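User: Okay, second chain of the day. Same drill as before: sequence in, structure tokens out.
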Amino acid sequence: MAFLLILGYKTQFCFIMMDDLDYRILAILQKDNLTPQRDIGDKIGLSAPAVQRRIKKMREEGIIEKDIAVVDRDKVGSNVTIIVEIFLERKKINEIDAIRKEFSSVPEIQQCFHITGESDFLLIMVVPSMSYYENLTRKIFFGNESIKRFRTSVVMGISKNSLEIPLNNFL
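Assistant: Same drill. Structure tokens below.
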């Protein structure tokens, strides 16, 4: 079975055809992107070169955005995870775009979501200590006139930490 993905951001759309083999490859790669292509092929009934071509195509089309390593935050000393809600002073598109760009440049911000509801942005941050976070807030939140206020929640424990996209509807 083939699926047509319609991806859009603002007014540009991209149409990408994917079949169940592509989704099965993605499901395997999301669990371990170092899985040898030969092993992937054996699991889904394709040759290693066919798997390689499909992976290359998915990278070129932006379906696979990155190949990353998940690092244990405790072992590298950045063990304080913080969730921050940002409330903007004004909701003008140029200010929203500027703040998105600024947040994207801050390495401690792992994820940045522009959201609906009472707040405007939700940030997931990882820092080595609360004093480090306090200094960071002075630079990026208090010093920004577009930010009306922010609310911080400190994570007490992490039960699940994944960026895996559920693909079971396509398999």
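The chain has a mean pLDDT of 89.

User: Thanks, on to the next one.
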